[in-house]
Write a structure and sequence with these properties.
The structure is a homodimer of 329-residue chains. Chain A has 329 residues and is of the alpha+beta class. Chain A has 2 domains: 170 residues, Peroxisomal Thiolase, Chain A, domain 1; 152 residues, Peroxisomal Thiolase, Chain A, domain 1 (3-Layer(aba) Sandwich). Chain A is 31% helix and 23% strand. Chain A has 10 helices and 14 strands. In chain A, strands 1-9-14-13-12 form a 5-stranded mixed β-sheet, with helices on both faces. In chain A, strands 2-8-7-5-6 form a 5-stranded mixed β-sheet, sandwiched between helices. A two-stranded antiparallel ribbon of chain A has the order 3-4. In chain A, helix 4 links the parallel strand 5 and strand 6. In chain A, helix 3 crosses helix 4. Chain A is globular, with a radius of gyration of 19 Å. The two termini of chain A are 18 Å apart. The model of chain A has no long low-confidence stretch (mean pLDDT 95). At the A-B interface, helix 4, strand 6, helix 5, strand 9 and strand 10 of A face helix 4, strand 6, helix 5, strand 9 and strand 10 of B.
């Protein structure tokens, strides 16, 4: 991949107002006190009530980013709407966002499960550098709570809802940009994370049951496969064309907030300094595709997004799909 | 948008083996002889049996394109999987294609209802020209038959299933490329075309019924809104940066095969010479996102895709979304 310039203009985020604490879940699920927090690693996560739409939450994140940039919607030339699960089978979530905001925009959806933000970032960079658009917004949104099976501790306890938006321009050569990008699918992991209904596979014509609408995960499978392939994947990602990097040369790690065990294993296994990893998991949970841009928003909000830093964005998603990008700020 | 080079290496397509003739539907639906063909404008369409998966059909189209280019899957650096409706809510249809083909590839889904092929084409062009990838496959697939309500003549009769793939490289300056691209959403048309279930909006938690899984269309609404906005949209599309075009200067029209009435109205209203428009609708129907690349494959297969021609690709999709591209071959 050719490195190219990319300038982060602003970020924004949105969370449903309803906080669901692990203490509250202990009671709701008839568990001993402290069980849910210990099992999930989460203090609280946000879950949308049934009136909130995915496009509504995404719209809040977009308006928040626009406000932070002193821009209006008409200043955005393209919206890339990222989601792990869309609002409807048809039309696109981008269309629903346009309708929610009453915005005659241009845009489409990108989906790569939990890591869709990363190919959207590469696309946006390429489109901006080719002069196709002046300013692009990427907004990732997911309402994971709509697909949780409360009978299944391994999955139901770790997810939170959310949306986050970044606004990008080409910038100048001094603004930094993407140094590297890598994505790879490991199809023997296709069954590790699934919601089987929702498309052409399971529906009234082919047969379906309530269970097909719930998120199912083989956590051990994900863990084992990720442990097996991640070191070589990272080596390839860090081997950027002009200036090969090492794990130690990365100043800031923005990782998909998959689970507390997954993240702590990654940090130990790869020898990453924990203080370089942004961790919002205890107060957000795994927000599917919204995790990565929410972490980026956190980096900006807390002043850790600073010019001169070399940032690695990395995640694992259903598929099994690995994706990563190196961003020189 | 900056014009950029783009070289079509090969195309491929796949159709389910099962042909459903309009005569057969007359009998199945207890209609008088000739009713379905007159109403739909279709002689026959292809519908998948319940064992065929969307990824299976997409995989056939990809292998067909690879064969036509004398390439193997390992020669494809990125797969952009386009669909109107995905195979499952999670993971991406790209992941399912990788699993079906046992291919450790890189890729993601793009969704803009019926016109997703066009933003995928612009993205692919930008990514190739920025040197991010050497060779990109775009494969659009849809199994519309899985979402048809046979009680609803307006929608059930006009759709067919299919998949089509194009393989692209940057090419040289002599290979032509994209001269223009335009996409726009008209959100007052959000309810004209919908499948409401399948995502976070309608599911077991929020409430759903069988009807929510079927495609619903306000055909008159689509027609009225498209008629209103298309002329100005086309003017903007044809007003390419370096060499503004007119409708008469377009040599070949590759249009989304929405319906026979929609297409014939478009041709008359805009004063397009009918022989310049590729029409596969009578034997394919509306194949949702697979229509546009299937039409492109038809142009290549019939020798109408010739160097020096200026081609317009245009379509209307749910949302309501209009998209168009100008390709100088």
């Amino acid at each position: 991949m050719t490195p190219f310039s990319l300038k982060l203009i602003a970020t924004g985020k949105a969370l449903p107002t309803q906080k669901v604490s692990s203490d509250e879940l202990d009671k709701r699920l008839n568990k001993p006190a402290g069980y849910v927090q210990k099992r999930s690693g989460i203090i609280y996560r946000h879950h949308a009530d049934l009136h909130l739409t995915q496009a509504g939450l995404a719209g809040q994140a977009i308006l928040n980013a626009c406000q932070n940039a002193n821009l209006s919607l008409s200043d955005i030339d393209l919206l890339i709407a990222v989601n792990g699960v869309p609002q409807q089978a048809l039309p696109s979530t981008a269309s629903h966002i346009f309708a929610h905001l009453n915005w005659q925009g241009a845009g489409y959806d990108v989906n790569a499960s939990c890591v869709g933000f990363l190919p959207a970032l590469e696309q946006a960079g390429a489109l901006l550098n080719m002069g196709c658009y002046k300013r692009i917004a990427i907004c990732a949104s997911d309402l994971a709570s709509r697909g949780l099976n409360w009978q299944d501790d391994e999955t139901a306890l770790i997810f939170g809802d959310g949306a986050a938006c970044v606004i990008l321009e080409k910038g100048t050569d001094n603004d930094g940009g993407l140094l590297g990008f890598l994505m790879k699918s490991y199809p023997d992991g296709i069954e590790y994370c699934q919601i089987q209904a929702g498309g052409t596979a399971k529906n009234p014509k082919t047969g379906m049951c309530e269970d097909d609408f719930y998120f199912k995960m083989d956590g051990y499978g994900v863990f084992k496969k990720t442990s097996e392939v991640l070191p070589a994947f990272l080596d390839n990602l860090l081997n950027t064309p002009k200036n090969p990097l090492t794990i130690q040369k990365i100043d800031l790690w923005l990782v998909h907030q998959a689970s507390h065990l997954g993240m702590s294993h990654l940090i130990k296994r790869l020898g990453i300094a924990p203080q370089k990893v942004i961790n919002i998991y205890p107060t957000h949970g795994n927000q599917v595709s919204a995790s990565l841009p929410t972490v980026l928003h956190e980096a900006v909000s807390t002043g850790q997004w600073q010019q001169g830093k070399t940032v690695a964005l990395v995640g694992t998603g259903a598929g099994l799909t690995l994706a990563g990008a190196i961003w020189q700020i």
